[in-house]
Amino acid sequence: MLIYLRVLKESFNFAISALRNNKLRTFLSLLGVTIGIFSIIAVLAAVDSLEKEIKGSLSSLDNSTIILMRFSFGPSEIPSWKRQQFPDVSYDEYQYLKKNLPGLEATSYTLNVPQESLKYEETTVTGVGIGAVSHEYYDIEALQLGEGRFFNESEAVSGSQVIILGHEIAQNLFGESNPMGKELRLYGQKFSVIGVLEKEGSNFLGNSKDGAVLIPVNVVRRIFGDNNKSTFPQIIIKPEDGVDNAEFIAVLTQQLRNYRGLKPDEVSNFFVNQLQGFADLIDNITGQLNFIGLIISGFSLLVGGFGIANIMFVSVKERTNLIGIQKSLGAKNKFILFQFLFEAVILAVIGGLVGLFLVWLVSIGASQFTGEFEFVLSPWNMFLGTAVSAVIGLISGIIPAISASKLDPVEAIRTGM
């Protein structure tokens, strides 16, 4: 064990000596490894950060949650012209499913509507996202209230003019004063504040509720009507825990087909989108991005590997006389082999660590520059970068190391002289 530690120490000293004595050559040789490791880890870190940000934006909803609407989350075999003729889901269908769908924990009818302005006395906030939802939305989204309460079933059904404010909206309109019970104007009508959501923070998908408000869906239905093209309805469905999702979706599909009077040979004119399917789609996309990035970055590593091999062949040639002396004094072939292998690995790891350091700098800069997007360099990616660079050094150094270990001591000393 001690002899291997000694070899490691001597190899490290040789590597440092090579770095000092042949700075330009070493720099050019290690540049390929540095760029390769930088490219691979940067791609992996960027894709991981993107995936984490997207999934974090969806974390408030359970993966078993279903969104019923006339659009599909993913690709569809139904032609585009036919999908465009699909009708929107309706409030009556929401009520029907709520009463007749077995295994249902909660369902909410929601309308996506254009942004509006909110006014309180002389203060106006523009570009406010309006969430028109039924009362069950509170439980499905697992909303957290900082103050007040959510509107109840009676208020939702009757279309009471009550409103829940996002944290940022409450701050902009009321500052530090208590907004509860205050009246503000929306759609030219007065709404009474009954609750304020806890601060969520921004997310990649831009669907943070900090800059939005929630009102009963029947208020919006009364204002816009049920056939207004500027509104986009959805039915959000949450199955009970333990329910078989495939069976639940099959029953749901058949229930809605029956309600719409579709014949057995007709395609369903709606889409049952499950968040798990969306999560799987994200995993598939990020997997493809990782694969493409690794292929491109692999070429940089290939160049870096040739650079390491080149510097090791030169190192063997320069130290031929020293190798001959070592072998004449009793150094075994494996001693010489390990000496050059360790040196190649150390040089490659140095290049890899420089690449990781550059990725770390870029991650800090990217997080600061983008503000809302956090670029994460995980410990796994750091370990992977170090391991890959060590493997590149091992592969690149194996042939020069073997050639050095097989040198004849007499010929090596004579050649060196």
UniProtKB/TrEMBL annotation:
> What is this protein called in UniProt?
ABC transporter permease
**Where would I find the ABC3 transporter permease C-terminal domain in this sequence?**
295-409
Q: How does it sit in the membrane?
A: Multi-pass membrane protein
Q: Name one GO cellular component term.
A: plasma membrane
* Keywords carried by this UniProt record: Cell membrane, Membrane, Transmembrane, Transmembrane helix
| PANTHER family listed in its UniProt record | ABC TRANSPORTER PERMEASE (PTHR30572:SF15), MEMBRANE COMPONENT OF TRANSPORTER-RELATED (PTHR30572)
What molecular function terms (GO) are annotated for this protein?
A: transmembrane transporter activity
Species in which this protein is naturally found: Gillisia limnaea (strain DSM 15749 / LMG 21470 / R-8282)
- Location(s) in or outside the cell: Cell membrane
Q: Which residues cross the membrane?
A: 27-47, 291-314, 335-362, 382-404
MacB-like periplasmic core domain location: 26-254
